[in-house]
Amino acid sequence: MTQPDWQQIEADFRYWAFYRYYQGPYANVHSNTLRFCLSLLASAEPIRDRKAVIEWHRHYKKKKAQAEFKRITARSLRRQFSHLQNGKES
Fold first, then answer.
1. Is residue 14 within 8 Å of 44, Cβ to Cβ?
2. Model's pTM, two decimal places?
3. DSSP SS3 for 34
């Protein structure tokens, strides 16, 4: 498996940063257009510490994989024990 290049890591980080600004500090801005613009400007600031962003990417990728594993496991368990939820015993 190849390592993602810097452009992809930066794109993922900026997407995440936009979401964090939109849901966090600018959540109480009443105008959706202004809220969007402020979040976009904040997430487009120059990256000061490339190593920290790469470390964030590793952590984010791991967290994302763990969430996917939990989702798949929960779905599998629901299927496996669905007969118990329906009140039927085999």
1. yes
2. 0.65
3. helix
Q: Residue 28: CA atoms inside 13 Å, Cβ hemisphere, count?
A: 1
Amino acid 89: pLDDT: 53
pLDDT at 72: 78
The pLDDT of residue 86 is: 60
- DSSP per residue over 40-86, as a string? HHHHTSPPS-HHHHHHHHHHHHHHHHHHHHHHHHHHHHHHHTHHHHT
For 48-68, write each residue's pLDDT tens digit. Answer: 999 999 998 888 888 877 777
**Radius of gyration (C-alpha) of the chain in whole angstroms:** 20
CB-count burial class (<10 Å; 0-12, 13-18, 19+) for 9: buried
